[in-house]
Amino acid sequence: MNAALPDQEAVQAADDGAPAPASRSVRIQQILESEIFSGHLAPGARLDEVELAARFRVSRTPVREALRHLASAGLIRIRPRQPAVVVELPASRLIEMFQVMAELESLCARMAARRISASQLATLSALHDELIELSKTDRVADFYEVNRRFHETIYEASQNEFLAEQTRALRNRIGAYRRLVTQKPSRRAATLTEHDDVLRAIATGNEEAAADAMRGHVNLLGEKLLDFIALFPKSGR
Protein backbone atom coordinates (compact mmCIF):
# COMPACT_ATOMS: atom_id res chain seq x y z
CA MET A 1 0.00 0.00 0.00
CA ASN A 2 1.14 3.54 -0.68
CA ALA A 3 0.98 6.23 1.97
CA ALA A 4 -1.72 8.81 1.36
CA LEU A 5 -0.45 12.28 0.49
CA PRO A 6 -1.57 15.28 2.59
CA ASP A 7 -4.01 16.44 -0.10
CA GLN A 8 -5.42 12.92 -0.34
CA GLU A 9 -5.92 12.98 3.42
CA ALA A 10 -7.88 16.23 3.12
CA VAL A 11 -10.10 14.66 0.47
CA GLN A 12 -10.76 11.68 2.74
CA ALA A 13 -11.75 13.99 5.59
CA ALA A 14 -14.06 15.92 3.31
CA ASP A 15 -15.96 12.82 2.18
CA ASP A 16 -19.28 12.14 3.87
CA GLY A 17 -18.76 9.81 6.78
CA ALA A 18 -14.97 9.94 6.52
CA PRO A 19 -13.15 10.35 9.83
CA ALA A 20 -11.40 13.62 10.64
CA PRO A 21 -7.59 13.54 11.01
CA ALA A 22 -7.88 13.48 14.82
CA SER A 23 -10.23 10.50 14.61
CA ARG A 24 -7.80 8.67 12.36
CA SER A 25 -4.93 9.23 14.79
CA VAL A 26 -7.06 7.90 17.66
CA ARG A 27 -8.01 4.83 15.64
CA ILE A 28 -4.38 4.15 14.73
CA GLN A 29 -3.42 4.56 18.38
CA GLN A 30 -6.09 2.08 19.49
CA ILE A 31 -5.05 -0.52 16.90
CA LEU A 32 -1.39 -0.28 17.90
CA GLU A 33 -2.33 -0.43 21.59
CA SER A 34 -4.26 -3.62 20.94
CA GLU A 35 -1.34 -5.15 19.07
CA ILE A 36 1.06 -4.24 21.89
CA PHE A 37 -1.21 -5.71 24.56
CA SER A 38 -1.84 -8.88 22.56
CA GLY A 39 1.88 -9.43 22.08
CA HIS A 40 1.64 -9.03 18.30
CA LEU A 41 4.00 -6.08 18.71
CA ALA A 42 6.59 -7.41 21.13
CA PRO A 43 9.00 -5.30 23.21
CA GLY A 44 11.69 -3.99 20.88
CA ALA A 45 9.43 -3.99 17.81
CA ARG A 46 10.10 -1.01 15.54
CA LEU A 47 7.31 1.39 14.58
CA ASP A 48 8.37 3.26 11.48
CA GLU A 49 6.25 6.30 10.55
CA VAL A 50 6.52 5.72 6.81
CA GLU A 51 5.60 2.05 7.06
CA LEU A 52 2.66 2.79 9.35
CA ALA A 53 1.42 5.56 7.07
CA ALA A 54 1.48 3.10 4.17
CA ARG A 55 -0.26 0.44 6.21
CA PHE A 56 -3.10 2.72 7.32
CA ARG A 57 -3.20 4.65 4.02
CA VAL A 58 -2.84 8.04 5.66
CA SER A 59 -0.22 10.77 5.76
CA ARG A 60 2.44 10.71 8.45
CA THR A 61 0.63 13.39 10.49
CA PRO A 62 -2.00 11.16 12.19
CA VAL A 63 0.63 8.42 12.56
CA ARG A 64 2.99 10.83 14.31
CA GLU A 65 0.17 11.98 16.60
CA ALA A 66 -0.76 8.39 17.46
CA LEU A 67 2.86 7.57 18.27
CA ARG A 68 3.12 10.65 20.46
CA HIS A 69 0.16 9.48 22.55
CA LEU A 70 1.56 5.96 22.78
CA ALA A 71 4.85 7.42 24.01
CA SER A 72 3.09 9.55 26.64
CA ALA A 73 1.40 6.37 27.87
CA GLY A 74 4.80 4.73 28.22
CA LEU A 75 4.05 2.05 25.62
CA ILE A 76 6.74 3.07 23.13
CA ARG A 77 9.95 5.09 23.09
CA ILE A 78 10.46 7.72 20.41
CA ARG A 79 14.07 8.13 19.29
CA PRO A 80 15.58 10.99 17.24
CA ARG A 81 15.91 10.08 13.56
CA GLN A 82 15.08 6.43 14.27
CA PRO A 83 11.85 4.42 14.34
CA ALA A 84 10.01 4.31 17.66
CA VAL A 85 10.24 1.04 19.57
CA VAL A 86 7.83 -0.83 21.82
CA VAL A 87 9.00 -0.80 25.43
CA GLU A 88 8.56 -3.49 28.05
CA LEU A 89 6.63 -2.33 31.10
CA PRO A 90 6.36 -5.16 33.65
CA ALA A 91 3.02 -5.78 35.33
CA SER A 92 4.68 -5.08 38.68
CA ARG A 93 5.56 -1.55 37.52
CA LEU A 94 2.02 -0.93 36.33
CA ILE A 95 0.60 -2.13 39.64
CA GLU A 96 2.83 0.39 41.44
CA MET A 97 1.56 3.13 39.14
CA PHE A 98 -2.05 2.17 39.84
CA GLN A 99 -1.34 2.28 43.58
CA VAL A 100 -0.06 5.85 43.30
CA MET A 101 -2.98 6.72 41.03
CA ALA A 102 -5.39 5.39 43.64
CA GLU A 103 -3.92 7.69 46.29
CA LEU A 104 -4.00 10.74 44.03
CA GLU A 105 -7.61 10.12 43.00
CA SER A 106 -8.52 9.38 46.60
CA LEU A 107 -7.21 12.80 47.60
CA CYS A 108 -9.14 14.40 44.73
CA ALA A 109 -12.34 12.73 45.93
CA ARG A 110 -11.70 13.79 49.53
CA MET A 111 -11.28 17.43 48.51
CA ALA A 112 -14.22 17.24 46.11
CA ALA A 113 -16.47 16.09 48.96
CA ARG A 114 -15.61 19.34 50.72
CA ARG A 115 -15.42 21.73 47.78
CA ILE A 116 -17.63 20.53 44.92
CA SER A 117 -20.04 23.09 43.50
CA ALA A 118 -23.71 22.44 42.80
CA SER A 119 -23.11 22.56 39.04
CA GLN A 120 -20.19 20.13 39.26
CA LEU A 121 -22.25 17.75 41.37
CA ALA A 122 -25.04 17.90 38.79
CA THR A 123 -22.52 17.14 36.03
CA LEU A 124 -21.09 14.22 37.99
CA SER A 125 -24.56 12.76 38.55
CA ALA A 126 -25.48 13.17 34.88
CA LEU A 127 -22.28 11.42 33.79
CA HIS A 128 -23.02 8.55 36.15
CA ASP A 129 -26.50 8.21 34.65
CA GLU A 130 -24.97 8.23 31.17
CA LEU A 131 -22.60 5.43 32.15
CA ILE A 132 -25.54 3.36 33.39
CA GLU A 133 -27.21 3.67 29.98
CA LEU A 134 -23.97 2.92 28.12
CA SER A 135 -23.45 -0.21 30.21
CA LYS A 136 -26.53 -1.65 28.50
CA THR A 137 -24.82 -1.39 25.11
CA ASP A 138 -21.60 -2.61 23.51
CA ARG A 139 -20.27 0.94 23.09
CA VAL A 140 -17.11 0.31 25.11
CA ALA A 141 -15.18 3.28 23.69
CA ASP A 142 -18.01 5.64 24.65
CA PHE A 143 -18.17 4.10 28.12
CA TYR A 144 -14.45 4.69 28.57
CA GLU A 145 -14.72 8.32 27.45
CA VAL A 146 -17.64 9.14 29.75
CA ASN A 147 -15.84 7.36 32.57
CA ARG A 148 -12.82 9.59 31.92
CA ARG A 149 -15.05 12.67 32.13
CA PHE A 150 -16.54 11.41 35.41
CA HIS A 151 -13.07 11.26 36.95
CA GLU A 152 -12.03 14.54 35.34
CA THR A 153 -14.99 16.27 36.97
CA ILE A 154 -13.79 15.06 40.37
CA TYR A 155 -10.27 16.36 39.67
CA GLU A 156 -11.72 19.77 38.88
CA ALA A 157 -14.04 19.66 41.90
CA SER A 158 -11.03 19.22 44.19
CA GLN A 159 -10.34 22.92 43.48
CA ASN A 160 -6.62 22.12 43.66
CA GLU A 161 -5.05 22.80 40.28
CA PHE A 162 -1.68 21.25 41.09
CA LEU A 163 -3.26 18.04 42.37
CA ALA A 164 -5.49 17.88 39.29
CA GLU A 165 -2.48 18.34 36.99
CA GLN A 166 -0.46 15.58 38.65
CA THR A 167 -3.42 13.19 38.73
CA ARG A 168 -4.22 13.88 35.10
CA ALA A 169 -0.59 13.35 34.06
CA LEU A 170 -0.40 9.92 35.68
CA ARG A 171 -3.82 8.98 34.37
CA ASN A 172 -2.62 9.76 30.84
CA ARG A 173 0.36 7.45 31.34
CA ILE A 174 -1.78 4.50 32.39
CA GLY A 175 -4.84 5.40 30.32
CA ALA A 176 -4.16 2.69 27.77
CA TYR A 177 -4.19 0.05 30.49
CA ARG A 178 -7.38 1.43 32.02
CA ARG A 179 -8.96 1.26 28.59
CA LEU A 180 -7.85 -2.37 28.33
CA VAL A 181 -9.48 -3.26 31.65
CA THR A 182 -12.68 -1.51 30.51
CA GLN A 183 -13.05 -4.13 27.77
CA LYS A 184 -14.28 -6.61 30.39
CA PRO A 185 -18.08 -6.43 30.93
CA SER A 186 -17.66 -7.43 34.57
CA ARG A 187 -15.32 -4.48 35.11
CA ARG A 188 -17.80 -2.04 33.58
CA ALA A 189 -20.54 -3.39 35.85
CA ALA A 190 -18.32 -3.04 38.90
CA THR A 191 -17.45 0.51 37.84
CA LEU A 192 -21.09 1.55 38.14
CA THR A 193 -21.38 0.24 41.69
CA GLU A 194 -18.10 1.84 42.73
CA HIS A 195 -18.98 5.15 41.09
CA ASP A 196 -22.29 5.13 42.94
CA ASP A 197 -20.41 4.85 46.24
CA VAL A 198 -18.05 7.68 45.27
CA LEU A 199 -20.89 9.90 44.07
CA ARG A 200 -22.99 9.35 47.19
CA ALA A 201 -20.07 10.13 49.50
CA ILE A 202 -19.17 13.31 47.62
CA ALA A 203 -22.81 14.44 47.46
CA THR A 204 -23.19 14.06 51.23
CA GLY A 205 -19.85 15.72 51.99
CA ASN A 206 -18.42 12.57 53.58
CA GLU A 207 -14.72 13.13 52.91
CA GLU A 208 -13.46 9.89 54.44
CA ALA A 209 -16.00 7.73 52.64
CA ALA A 210 -15.28 9.49 49.34
CA ALA A 211 -11.55 8.92 49.71
CA ASP A 212 -11.98 5.26 50.66
CA ALA A 213 -14.47 4.58 47.86
CA MET A 214 -12.24 6.15 45.22
CA ARG A 215 -9.13 4.38 46.48
CA GLY A 216 -10.90 1.04 46.30
CA HIS A 217 -12.24 1.88 42.85
CA VAL A 218 -8.86 2.67 41.29
CA ASN A 219 -6.52 0.34 43.14
CA LEU A 220 -5.80 -3.11 41.75
CA LEU A 221 -6.60 -5.50 44.57
CA GLY A 222 -7.94 -9.03 44.79
CA GLU A 223 -9.87 -10.17 41.73
CA LYS A 224 -9.22 -6.87 39.94
CA LEU A 225 -5.48 -7.53 40.17
CA LEU A 226 -5.84 -11.08 38.87
CA ASP A 227 -8.05 -9.90 36.02
CA PHE A 228 -5.53 -7.22 35.11
CA ILE A 229 -2.56 -9.59 35.04
CA ALA A 230 -4.57 -12.09 32.99
CA LEU A 231 -4.91 -9.49 30.23
CA PHE A 232 -1.18 -9.60 29.49
CA PRO A 233 0.26 -12.11 27.02
CA LYS A 234 2.27 -14.80 28.81
CA SER A 235 5.45 -13.80 27.02
CA GLY A 236 5.18 -10.30 28.47
CA ARG A 237 4.90 -11.26 32.12
UniProtKB/TrEMBL annotation:
Q: What is this protein called?
A: Transcriptional regulator
Q: Where is this region: Disordered?
A: 1-22
Q: Name one Pfam family in it.
A: GntR
Give the keywords, sorted. Answer: DNA-binding, Transcription, Transcription regulation
Q: List each copy of the HTH gntR-type domain by range.
A: 22-89
Annotated source species: Bordetella genomosp. 8
Q: Does the keyword tRNA processing belong to this entry?
A: no
Q: Which InterPro entries match?
A: GntR_C, TF_FadR/GntR_C, Tscrpt_reg_HTH_GntR, WH-like_DNA-bd_sf, WH_DNA-bd_sf
Keyword Transmembrane assigned: no
Q: Name one GO molecular function term.
A: DNA binding
